[in-house]
Amino acid sequence: MTWMETERAALVQTLRRADPDAPTLCEGWTVRHLLAHLVEREHHPLRAGADAVVTRTPGREPFMSRLVDGARTRDGYEALVRRFERGFTPWEPMGWLGERGHLLEYVIHHEDIRRAGTDPAEPRVLPTDEVRAIWGQVATMARLGYRTSPVGVVLAVPGGPRKVVRRRPDAVLLTGDPVELALHAAGRREAADVDVTGRPETVDQFLAVVGRART
Question: How are strands ordered across the β-sheet holding 162-166?
């Protein structure tokens, strides 16, 4: 079993335990919306793309809303969970992306459920090899997530490796475990346990543009 498959299985368990109407870290989305997003992204990527283009208010995506409405009942929700649980058919292009295309997606959305609300869950303790796999993918996401930063950005694991993801004369150092760094790079600033250090003026420039807001 790949780490992508392991994380999917863990996410399915969380989806089954969660209140479908509970909030997530994704603004405007409940757990039910997030589940619908996962299914649409994997099985109807063109519709997911269209929703991303035309939607101005999260939670009102025209195509995704059909899946959400079909999951309003307990049986409908469980059917949608099962559809996500089954994964890809061999001929679905999104399945061809494999670990690179889905591991961080599952990890981040898993934490979108776990860490939302007034009583967020503590970070999970993941297998060492899974953490290494996550670290191996964080830089790509971070280059996109910090593309507007006016200063350089370096990622670091406490007592471990570092990666430069944006080169500038002055840089901030973002220190945290790989899952926390992934969450921060994906816009979940307040939910991520990441230390931002550097020269005070450099940190201020970084935070003024990148900020700490969740997306």
Answer: 162-166, 152-156, 171-175, 195-197
